[in-house]
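Hi there, hope your week has been kind to you so far. For a while now I've been wondering how a particular protein folds. I'm sending you its amino acid sequence along with the backbone structure tokens. Could you read through the record and tell me how the tokens relate to the sequence? Take your time with it, there's no hurry, and the full record follows here.
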Amino acid sequence: MFLAINYPSWIHPEIFPGVPFLGLLRWYGLMYIFAFGTAYFILSKLRKEGALDSPGQTTTDDDLFGFFGFGVLFLLLGARIFSALVYDTSGLYRQKPWLIFWPFNEAGQFTGLAGMSFHGGVIGGLLGMIIWCLTHKRPLWKWVDAMVVAIPLGYTFGRIGNFLNGELYGRITTMPWGMIFPGAQRFSVSIPWVKEFAENAGLTIAENARLINLPRHPSQLYEAFFEGIVLFLILWFLRKKKPFDGFLSGMFLIGYGTFRFIIEYFREPDADLGYIISVTDASTYLNDSLLNISMGQILCFLMIIGGIGIILARYFITKKQNEK
């Protein structure tokens, strides 16, 4: 029997742990740099293919940088605001909204902007792209199509950053690739099902042990692969086959929403939110029913509906324009 995998002890959230000043540098922040750099590289390649050009309008490097920068700025704003106001249930940020962008905790320790929502990033980024395209008189859906092709591969680094932080792990599992994350909830060995679960996972319980850390799905890596690499390959393949502008934007929302909706069954929901829709009394670390729905799944369902709506609307609008 394969044993559960221990989270590598040499991985720390800090790039240089224990080193004065350099200890503030975190892998998660570095992954953001890799993510934006990768996305910009893909967008630049699309520009060279002419994906952003329109009759009488040739895209310059300044255009590309301005569009990308505006989109990223609004993405970060949306991701942080959405996370603070939707996923935080303490009410702290509603009472003290200036703390949303305050990078220190109450003890004065530097934490960075802990907590970013992908769904909020999508909303913010789209708003930023709409504003830029309208003010610069560029075809919105053509430019958004290019951006959504560039996003997934960059997104991969974000989920790798979550893995390096040892956060956003999945639910408990007996699969041989289950991983024991040091920060995960521990369970009392006096509970019968915990003992049985540990045995099925190939774990040995010490005689004097009172608590045990059970293996979990490395859901960050599932997301990095399916929502990042696989979705990128799908959109990259479709980029020259799209029937109309806006098609790739809709496919991005459908593809991401579908992958994330499924992976949410393996990822543990935020403890303070739990299940938004629940048909059982199961805890968040268990998956007793496919009808127990998390906040992430509700948002993903809305993304799928939105993607279908965009494709249908753009299809009929384009068809009507071609008939004139």
